[in-house]
Design goal:
Blueprint: H1 3-34, H2 41-59, H3 63-84, H4 94-116, E1 131-134, E2 137-140, H5 141-163, H6 165-175, H7 177-182, H8 187-209, H9 219-234, H10 241-259, H11 265-279
Antiparallel strand pairs: 1-2
């Protein structure tokens, strides 16, 4: 294998890693806040991609143009899921919480298949298209735009959580919800906001992915598995660490496909996950 091919793989893995990190950030935020794993996270991504596709097909909006609309819709959807389902199972056993979000995932996927069929769809001729040649390497412009958009969204999320009063209230609720409540923080409002922000993150990722990835009802399944691995590698609830973990997952996935075989790329990622959780169950950057 040539050095150029290896560098090409590294660049491709790095670009996809940023998008994986943004998908996982929403999952990690929700878990860190409420210790609930959202098994419907991949279906949230699927809905965001379909929202982007229909905005393009019906309203002639480019994915980058409709991105704020998609993010807003997913934010409202996250709030609706919290108020319609999650808040009723907050005090329920863990199995009930698992089955609730798993059931939501099955419902959303089946509803998408019933409404839109199982065929693959693609946004054709997006505003950002083609490729860029740099030093013998070729970089897809949609992938580059998606990774830069994911980095920008991740930076905004980090600023919001660490620099704003509402973000600090989210952190306080995540650390000790009873103490936060005693300090006057409306924890129910923080939980709802966490679900809204988590869904908005995956909404942004879905809109960016829709520029170059096929859209179909099962599209969220593989991305959700990678998001779970990313969150576990970074440390459950550690949102900043998902950025580094996402890059690791993206690079390992692409290099495994190049060095071993494309069929084994996910197997190598999951093997890495098993090694890390056996060595450090709290993840590479987790404290507990």
């Amino acid at each position: 294998m040539s050095v150029e091919t290896l560098l090409q793989g590294l660049v491709g893995g790095l670009l996809m890693g940023f998008v994986y990190a943004l998908i996982a950030a929403g999952l990690s935020l929700i878990f860190g806040l409420m210790e609930i794993v959202n098994f419907a996270h991949g279906e949230f991504l699927m809905l965001a991609m379909f929202a982007t596709f229909w905005s393009w097909a019906l309203l002639k909006l480019d994915p980058l143009t409709s991105l704020p609309l998609t993010v807003g819709l997913l934010f409202l959807f996250g709030l609706a899921v919290y108020h319609g389902l999650i808040r009723w199972i907050l005090g329920a056993p863990m199995l009930a919480q698992i089955f609730a979000t798993f059931g939501l995932a099955i419902f959303l996927r089946a509803a998408a298949q019933a409404l839109w069929g199982v065929e693959f769809r693609l946004v054709k001729n997006p505003l950002v298209d083609g490729r860029l040649a740099v030093g013998g390497l070729f970089i897809g412009l949609p992938q580059l735009a998606a990774s830069l958009g994911a980095l920008a969204a991740f930076g905004f999320l980090h600023w919001f959580i660490t620099r704003t009063e509402t973000g600090l209230a989210l952190q306080a609720t995540a650390q000790d919800r009873q103490a936060a409540s005693l300090m006057g923080i409306d924890t129910q409002r923080m939980f709802a906001l966490g679900w809204g922000i988590g869904a908005a993150c995956v909404g942004a990722a879905g809109a960016l992915l829709a520029m170059f990835f096929y859209i179909f009802p099962d599209v969220g399944a593989s991305f959700a598995l990678l998001a779970y691995v990313t969150v576990a590698l970074g440390g459950f609830g550690n949102v900043p660490a998902t950025l580094a973990a996402g890059v690791v997952v993206g690079v390992v996935e692409v290099l495994a496909g190049l060095l071993i075989a494309p069929a084994f790329k996910y197997a190598v990622v999951f093997a890495l996950y098993l090694v890390v959780v056996l060595w450090r169950p709290q993840g590479l950057f987790g404290r507990y």
